[in-house]
């Protein structure tokens, strides 16, 4: 394709709205343009990348035995009401009414629609197992859309759904998808890791996220330094401490801590370690206010807390509620004397003695507080986020941490949806049984953006060969007759060899062409100039490592086809 025939509006300056490398470079290289917050138009180069990612996904899903179909974007409220997600999903779900005043939503995911299809069309075990997938536009009304395609409101997703007779066969389907995802992201040229994860709004018994490893990732993952354990920090298990303090309990004392609200302020004022302070966090579930105790140097994990409480919603209590419950402003809450409120605590609290806690009065804390004697804990549980240095819960080493970008997620749903929607089949004995389900998602645009996060430099994008919009950027540096003739010949030969070529046929300065080529990131650049042709050669540059070699024009196609397959 010639540059003069395709819309590629490159930008010299970094867009002020963009924060991450992928967002900046997708805008600068002319791949996408913003329509509204979290909503983008894919320009020709960007769409070529999207289609290549989709094709890899399609090939591997078909290889794994999944069947492609296409479900509607809009789905009726009745289906979502059957599973209880019409209200549970919250404000991310875009709801609307048609002209007959019937309620619908724009599907952020399609568990209800596919389960409805199954219950209508499948009656016998003879038709199982089944796995259906689609590649389709979704919409989620994110509260803070950002980072370009990383967290958009409208996005392209591959979602698949499996139906099996029992848990054992469902695990076979789950493993097939798990393996297919490994092949997909490997073929896309990504460095990634599969980690245990929370099931979130989708639900189910277990799940794995596929994380592209990148410093700019929103997610923190932890993994064993010597074993195989890996998990999203939201899901990572933290075992109870093996050592318990042997200090003798000291008498409880009240101390004044003027204007000391934070862990840092209190520990500095009292000259103690954060490990000897206990934070009291008040949360509201919509039904009750509950106190959660965690060690001063630990972070409360709200996903674990919500799961432990089996709560639909969980939010930090407002300052007004904190003062009403404790009698003190935020920063001075503590468990001693806290009445008519449940107290739960992280496992680490059980191992402590003689700790500092809030005094439930302004500018006041207690020192040498001890649970059982000074306050009661209803239940201890794993309520904090794992961190680097913690022991692996599989006893296979110590946890290390890194950042990741979620590009795929596989869920073992069990009978969560089939039970709610009465999606059953008749087994070999004629007995009615619930289908056991799994679901499997891949963010297509996010996969493309993640590839940029992992593959870029100060000059621009460095596309992995399988998903590059073009394999070769052909750059004639002059308008001479000889350059034009050789360029035309190279263009034909490279395409005949199966390579996709972008020919920069603009009447622009050499520097502009080279800068744009580096920005757009084709794996190879072929530079044709009068000086080189006088020596009978053209220059071939590998974008990833910047290595340049000079070859006779007739050898270029053979060299590039051999290089990209080696």
What does this structure look like?
By secondary structure, this protein is of the alpha+beta class. The protein folds into three domains: 48-74 and 106-237 and 400-452, Bira Bifunctional Protein, Domain 2 (BirA Bifunctional Protein, domain 2); 253-381, YbaK/aminoacyl-tRNA synthetase-associated domain (YbaK protein); 470-565, Rossmann fold. The protein is 28% helix and 27% strand. The protein is built from 16 helices and 29 strands. Strands 3, 7, 8, 9, 10, 11, 12, 21 and 24 form a nine-stranded mixed sheet that branches. Strands 16-14-15-17-20 form a five-stranded mixed sheet. A hairpin with a 5-residue loop joins strand 5 (95-97) and strand 6 (103-106). Helix 2 (44-63) packs across helix 12. The protein is globular. The mean pLDDT is 94.
Strand and helix map with partners:
Blueprint lengths: L20 H8 L3 E5 L2 E4 L1 H20 L3 E2 L5 E3 H7 L1 H4 L6 E3 L5 E4 L4 H11 L8 E10 L14 E11 L2 H21 L4 E5 L9 E8 L5 E6 L5 E3 L20 E4 L6 H8 L7 E7 L4 E7 L6 H8 L5 E2 L2 H8 L15 E5 H4 L4 E4 L5 E6 L9 E3 L17 E16 L1 H5 L3 E3 L5 E3 L1 E8 H11 L17 E5 L4 H16 L4 E3 L6 H11 L3 E5 L1 H5 L3 E5 L5 E4 L4 H10 L1
Parallel strand pairs: 3-7, 15-17, 17-20, 25-26, 25-27
Antiparallel strand pairs: 1-2, 4-6, 5-6, 7-8, 8-24, 9-10, 10-21, 11-12, 11-21, 13-19, 14-15, 14-16, 18-19, 21-24, 22-23, 27-28, 28-29
